[in-house]
């Protein structure tokens, strides 16, 4: 077939365009290169559309042939483009799959832990719940009646001094101990009753071994014919569960306005095992060579306290005890600085992650 020179020129142009496209495609490395090629050749302003627009300038007789070839070229370019685009996408997915190593250990999110005060408090509650005690809580802002009056603490008692107590008004205080919970619980219930009451207490005290806020737990039991022997048996069981079955326990006579008789309880030093000396022969700093550390205050509930809540002291008797939770935690975990409990020092707190509750 004889081809007109105009047609020939048009076909040459298409061929050039296709070779240039092929050459450019060979160089493609990433989706950005491919996009440039699409814009240059295949977009509405690209060179292919440009070339096709010249069809209409050809002689009438050449147009079918020219149109057919042009369409084939256009089709090939577009197919090649689609093929390359899919190929690049597959490569990218493959690379992503290879970069993901399912054998790497996972990154677990950081989680908080229970505070040692919470741990110990829960532990103590668990031991007493095992003995049938209920857990009760009450307000940290107390009236003079619950914090002092009903507990037989007289007007002139030093505990009532502005030096020791944080007063909010003449008759409202931040509770200085958890003993008000004895009164509140006895008012609400009738004997027999047994409860533990954990919570924050406040005193005007701040130095290396005292904090203006600390935690106590109160325990009390009221029934008929409760004796000091019941108190001793209960506390012995409790202290051996919390510290160790091997500790020795000592009751020393003491005084509290709301118990009579009263005692303070010492346990053999858990740091030096009651020897008074450390492994290296130096005097034990925790028990100061005595072999014992004080752990709680207790006694038989005073008849005056029963009168304040309307119980007949002739019919009922009971015991009560109170202890500092931070102190138990310090002895149990060998912590020698009270401030660590209040500093929000995460590396310190994180160490309690693996202490199981009993
Ligand atoms: N409330 C006393 C204190 O804070 C402790 C205590 C409680 C003593 C119950 C005897 C009985 O020191």
Rg, alpha carbons:
43 Å
Task: Please report the distance between the alpha carbons of the first and last residues.
Answer: 101 Å
Query: What is the fourth-level CATH superfamily of the largest domain?
Result: Bira Bifunctional Protein, Domain 2
Number of domains: 2
Q: Which spans of ≥5 residues are poorly predicted at pLDDT below 50?
A: none
CATH class type of the largest domain: Alpha Beta
How is the main sheet built? 7 strands, mixed
Listed once per kind, the bound small molecules are: phenylalanine
Structural class: alpha+beta
Find the count of extended strands (DSSP E, 2+ residues): 9
- SS field, number of helical segments: 11
What portion of residues is helical?
25-40%
Mean pLDDT over the full residue set: 92
Query: Which architecture of the largest domain would the CATH scheme give at its second level?
Result: 2-Layer Sandwich
Strand order of the largest sheet: 1-4-5-9-8-7-6
Task: Return the CATH topology of the largest domain.
Answer: BirA Bifunctional Protein, domain 2
Name the helix and strand elements from N-terminus to C-terminus, one letter apiece: HHHHHEEHEHEEHEEEHEHH
Q: What share of residues are in beta strands?
A: 15-25%
Principal-axis shape equals rod-shaped
């Amino acid at each position: 077939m004889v081809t007109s020179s105009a047609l020939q020129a048009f076909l040459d142009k298409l061929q050039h365009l296709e070779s240039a496209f092929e050459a450019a495609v060979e160089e493609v490395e990433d989706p950005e290169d491919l996009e440039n090629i699409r814009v240059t050749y295949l977009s509405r302003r690209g060179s292919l559309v440009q070339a096709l627009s010249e069809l209409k300038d050809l002689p009438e007789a050449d147009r079918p042939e020219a149109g057919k070839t042009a369409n084939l070229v256009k089709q090939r370019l577009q197919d090649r483009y689609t093929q390359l685009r899919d190929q690049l996408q597959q490569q990218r997915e493959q690379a992503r799959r290879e970069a993901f190593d399912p054998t790497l250990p996972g990154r677990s999110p950081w989680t908080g832990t229970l505070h040692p005060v919470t741990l110990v408090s829960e532990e103590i509650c668990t031991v007493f719940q095992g003995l049938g005690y209920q857990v009760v809580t009450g307000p940290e802002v107390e009236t003079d009646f619950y914090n002092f009056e009903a507990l037989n603490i007289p007007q002139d008692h030093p505990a009532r001094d502005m030096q020791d107590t944080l007063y909010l008004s003449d008759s409202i205080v931040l509770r200085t101990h958890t003993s008000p919970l004895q009164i509140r619980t006895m008012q609400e219930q009738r004997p027999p009753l047994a409860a533990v009451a954990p919570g924050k207490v406040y005193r005007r005290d701040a130095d290396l071994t005292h904090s203006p806020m600390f935690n106590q737990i109160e325990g009390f039991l009221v029934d008929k014919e409760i004796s000091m022997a019941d108190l001793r048996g209960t506390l012995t069981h409790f202290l051996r569960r919390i510290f160790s079955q091997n500790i020795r326990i000592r009751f020393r006579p003491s005084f509290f306005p709301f118990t009579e008789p009263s005692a303070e309880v010492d346990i053999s030093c858990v740091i030096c095992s009651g020897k008074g000396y450390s492994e290296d022969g130096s005097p034990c700093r925790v028990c100061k060579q005595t072999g014992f550390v004080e752990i709680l205050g207790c006694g038989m509930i005073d008849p005056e306290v029963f009168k304040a809540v309307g119980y007949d002291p002739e019919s009922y008797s009971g015991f009560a005890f109170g202890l500092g939770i931070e102190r138990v935690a310090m002895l149990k975990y060998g912590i020698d600085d009270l401030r660590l409990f209040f500093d929000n020092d995460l590396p310190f707190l994180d160490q309690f992650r693996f202490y199981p509750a009993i």
